Amino acid sequence: MPFNLSDDVNTKEVSIADEKMRFSHILFKPNVFVSTHALRRYEKGTILKNLLGLTPDRKKVRFHKKLETVLLDVYEAIGGIDLAVLDCTYTYLTPTKDEGVNTNALLIGRDAVAVETVGALLVDLNPERMPVIQEAMKRGLGEGNVEKIEVLGESFEDFKDRFLNLLKTGRKGRFQTG
After folding, report:
1. pTM (two decimals)
2. How far out from the chain centre does Cα 147 lie?
């Protein structure tokens, strides 16, 4: 059932980037929080960037200069993300481009930072240069080192090479795993 977080009168005060805000009760445990986002080539992130939408404020632009702090404060305030789903059905090469490449894949994991890291690698971003991933690792919120992330299925390097090739050619066909 749809629920407007801004209309909830049952709230809890949290501190986000040194500001006090009231978050809807629905965001806190024992609920299960699932974050879903389309894969985009965007160095600010996808799954974790999605958390900005939880701030009950229409003037979110003020957070852009301290975005990593805000996103990870929200992550900690709600108790984390229980399941991260990165929808790679279509992959977008820019943060705002509406037309994507049909890559026909999904990344799913319980560690949102790990899912963010693997997604970044699939669009040829370096997670070591993504402040949100690096700060999340410093806070102990997840794994951002791909060498320590268990990716199930075929060889991740083979998968990544084929994925990147598909993005470079822009082929509209389906991406098939081997």
Report:
1. 0.88
2. 19
